[in-house]
Amino acid sequence: MSLKWGIIGTGSIAHTFAIGLKKAKKGELVAIGSRAKETAVKFGSQYGVPEDKCYATYADLLKDPSVDIVYISTPHPQHCEVAIQVAQAKKHVLVEKPFAMNEEEATRILAAAQKNDVFLMEAYMYRCHPQTRKIVELIQDDAVGEVKLIRANFAFDGRPLGATSRLWRNELGGGAILDIGGYPMSFARLIAGAAINKDFANPTEIKAVGHIQPDTKVDEWTTASLSFDDKISAQLFTGIFANTDSSVTVFGSKGTITAPNLWRPDLPDMAPMKIELAEYGKEPQQVFFDLVETDLYAIEADAVADAIFQGEKECKYMTWEDSMGQIRAVDKWRKEIGLIYSSDK
Known about the structure:
- This protein has helices at about 10-25, 35-45, 60, 80-90, 105-115, 130-140, 175-195, 295-310, 320-335; strands spanning about 5-10, 25-35, 55, 70, 90-95, 120-125, 145-155, 205-210, 220-230, 230-240, 250, 255-260, 275-280, 285.
- It contains nine helices and 14 strands.
- The termini are far apart.
- Strand 13 and strand 14 form a beta hairpin.
- The mean pLDDT is about 95.
């Protein structure tokens, strides 16, 4: 069986996902939706999509009966309305993270998926990767003992993209937290949950500081301190001003687990893909895991296909309840540093 995909939006992440789909075992790209025919054709021609399947409007793509599921890769503020339209067209939905701009929008998306009985997932692709699953397994197997602290970073230099990039524009949901800060937050919630034999946990308290640029009104960098039940804490950092450390470390009562490249293990230039387990006072040992496919997005697409072919409306790696907890936590983080978007008003 093969899941027939449509993509709405033709930006850089759409290209990354389309490349992954070519390597996926259970899916294929059949249609593109853009705001202009020329843009859709230019995109589709790179991935073997016929011109008559390259649509000048999102609505035209949603009328295509050959499309089973739509990957939404528009700018963040458009996620909500587009996701609702896709669900109303009875198509399954994979929404690029963040799920929505805020909890109110996320609630509306979820309601539309439930009403129209379609699959819905927020595209935190690293959650599907065997490296992430292995770390969860190590935590559940008590490899580091009682989890004390989770430290997670994600930053890159977004300055070369220039002021016109969506990354630096408040009206397009720019800034560090919504672009990449959700990764450290979602990892902290995942590990705090694994530590207490749950799929995820939500922070009981969030304190944060950061810098919002006065001209762009987006967050350039921010750090957050989280508290969870069972005396677990987390320290998060995200920024878009420099290519800094983007590793994760879990500190337990017996030792640590470190992964230098959890977010994009398919990009070795960021850092090597590996897991190191270290008991206190001893040398770190590398932990190995099975990896059949290296493309992160192919792994995600096949995980989505598995869920849909099994009749599921959610993916076990990022459930609806998990995404709602995620957006609430991100909303609190933004509130802590005073980051406001037009969709919040």
